[in-house]
Design a protein that fits this description.
4 helices
Length: 140
């Protein structure tokens, strides 16, 4: 994968305060000296869980999502935030997969390529190339 892109694998973890939680995309890193693993935050999505009214009214000590997930409920747009974070975490793998399956389509002679590979295959290849260009900011 290109050096200007964050290499995978990335994963989604929940981060929180005592009143809200949100999915965060992280990359697991290892300290070269100690071998200790730690998660480097790549980015975070919108709030996905909020503390319930019952939890706020209880005498239970406030806790984070990790410590007491029962205190939180899914926010109105929480499923979308989690789905976005999950897609973002999968993006490096998706880009790598797209790059692996190139057809030798001659952009300057699409008609010849259609005869050789079929028009549907050429259309899929052009879509694949457009998706890579969009993901990388490279010209098509």
């Amino acid at each position: 994968m290109d050096a200007k892109y964050t290499p995978g694998p990335l994963k989604v973890v929940m981060q929180s305060t005592c009143s809200a939680a949100w999915p965060t995309v992280v990359q697991t890193c290892n300290d070269p000296e100690t071998g200790e693993a730690w998660d480097r935050e790549i980015g975070k999505a919108d709030t996905s869980h909020i503390e319930t009214a019952e939890a706020r009214e209880s005498k239970e000590i406030s806790a984070t999502y990790d410590e007491a997930p029962h205190r939180f409920k899914l926010d109105e747009s929480g499923e979308e935030a989690i789905a976005n974070a999950t897609l973002w975490a999968a993006a490096p793998d998706l880009l790598e997969a797209l790059r692996k399956y190139e057809l030798p389509i001659d952009i300057n002679n699409i008609a010849l390529s259609c005869i050789e590979f079929g028009s549907e295959a050429v259309e899929r290849e052009l879509q694949r190339r457009a998706a890579i260009a969009k993901a990388t900011g490279e010209p098509q």
